[in-house]
User: Fold ATP synthase A/B type C-terminal domain-containing protein from Paenibacillus glucanolyticus.
Amino acid sequence: MDNLKLNVSLLRQRVPNLTSAAKSVGLRPATVSNLCTGKIPVGRAEVRTIAALASLAKCSLDELILRGERVDMIETGIKPLDLFAPLAKGGTVGLVARPGMGQLVLLGELFHHFKAGGYVTILLKPEGEYPELQDMLNDVQRVANSIEETYSIVANTSREKEIVFAADREHVLTGKIYDLQERIQQEGIENVTTFLVDLKGAAVDEDLPYGPLETLWYFDADLAARHMFPAVNPLYSTSSVLEGVHLDQHHLSVQQRAQKLLRRYRELRSLVQVRGLQAIPASETEVYERGERLEAYLTQPFYVAEAYTRLQGERVSLLETLDDVQAILNGSMDHRSVESLSWIGTIK
Assistant:
């Protein structure tokens, strides 16, 4: 039962406005989103939920549920992404943030890594003027002015090349992105990974801002306010890669332990902010301090932000991230100050 997953691309094609459709049949959009990203395993979902989704998509259960399908990850070199919500290769990732939380800086850093790694990078130009996009254009190889132009670029790119493609949510709301993805799929093109951003910042208030997704990155207002970038929420961001059958068990173990620590740390931090460190029991002080160190370690200097931060950009492999996080969780870094773990690449 653990190697089951929803056919997200089919849902995306058949039910463009999944939020309204889900509500109309009594399903919670959050539940549907968690099923799509794998946060809730398909094997643990209620039968009526799966049946309702099949009915909405006008398909059989065999079409809706994929068995034994592997979802591979693309290693980004960005610590919180690779640890908590790995990028699903060939899937669609949605970034949920308000303006000023750093989503475009993160996207720019990703495109910087992808371009250096030999990927073809494409940006579908949004309507209107967004000067903040200028900083990432150096790492965009092709800027498309329409969906048709995007399709032409993708179709004429060698199938041996991996493609990363970014678009604004306005193209999701019109349904054009889904039309594009359906055309690409019909052509048998499987080398395109799509990034959806919300330049207006309205997606934060939506239950399913982009429809079904393989990966979801939520940005955290508190982290952004404290300039702890990338401000990706480690508890709410998720990915279909996280299903046990797709993820190395060591990775899954470290990820779950890190989330447990950060969840408790955040609870304790609320008390400490109001009443000071003496407000928490002595037995919880170790948890609080390790959570503080882990949160600091998850910050990372970006190559695309060097001119602003005066810090050299760092790329950290998943293996290095897992080793470092495990060292923090096990107490091997208890002698290190929080400051010494902030804005670094690896601990070594």
In short: The first helix runs from residue 8 to 14. The chain has 16 helices and eleven strands. The chain has three domains: 4-67, 92-213, 249-341. The two ends are 40 Å apart (CA to CA).
